[in-house]
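[step 3/7] fold_predict: job queued, chain A
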Amino acid sequence: MKAYHLNGHAGTGRLEPVDLGKPEPANGEVRIRVEAASLNYRDLITLDRAGQTGLNGRVPLSDGAGIVDAIGSNVVQWQVGDRVAASFFRDWVSGPFKSSYVSSSLGGTSTDGMLAEYVVLPATALVAVPPHLSSVEAAILPCAGVTVWHGLITRGGMRKGDTLLVQGTGGVALFGLQFATALGARAIVISSSDEKLARARMLGGSILINYRDTPGWDAAVMKATDGEGASHILELGGPGTYDRSLRSVASGGKIIQIGVLTGFGPKPDLSRLQWENADIIGVTVGSVEHFTAMNRFLTEHAIHPIVDRVYGFAEVPEAYAHLRSGSHFGKVVVEF
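[step 4/7] structure written:
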């Protein structure tokens, strides 16, 4: 089969196409013929660190979907031909998070990912693809979709009448926008592009702020909400946005801390949280149980994830470059 490996030296990382033997499923395992995989910002970080963290030979990408094509012994929940997607954390099936699950994250420091024509995983690490979605769409779900579901819905309790602030128009932000629209919550979107803001309006965004024209977007958020602020904030930027998120959160509100899109840097002053009785919810993706619940919601509301661009398997470096450019609206996908 064909696959990609990370190959890093001299402090840099690169993607290397390789030919490997087709893996065979053991007891309790399933082999998937991967049809599509999608990229996340995490994959850029992993590639850039490949030369520093012993990742040579790792198959990258956490997100993928395809068809069950072989089953090991003692597997009863799947049949050949079933359409499935892989959970980001192979070992986090249900219940509270444990630090031991980190090493089971697909495409990470210890576990191979989905950028291969065939992948073998435990039967318990898979979820059924919603019937209304293509494999390209399903490949978008495992990281971005589940992260937003876990943070905003499971732990954040977002519901009708709430106000959500999303930063940008990448995969995570657009899932937040789509979930808010489906629930009847108001959505505020900030972006540097008027074109992207116009597209966000079509997905249900009601308050649109261009942060290049309005660098003090936190003040604009407070003005647009009559001084109340946002009950829920998807905090994606990190050091470059955190202080403004803190000034935008409503009394009793929740900041869902997810991203580091502006890098790593100084820690913000959190004192406002105390005076506003607000919370920070730290989220790193979610479990198979979260994934399954989200898929029921997607099916009920007929939600289709937003695909920005689809690349062929031979175009993986170009897909990485497109994601790095920041010009995408939604998710970047590789179709096999």
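[step 5/7] annotate
The chain has a mean pLDDT of 95.
The longest helix spans residues 141-155.
exit 0
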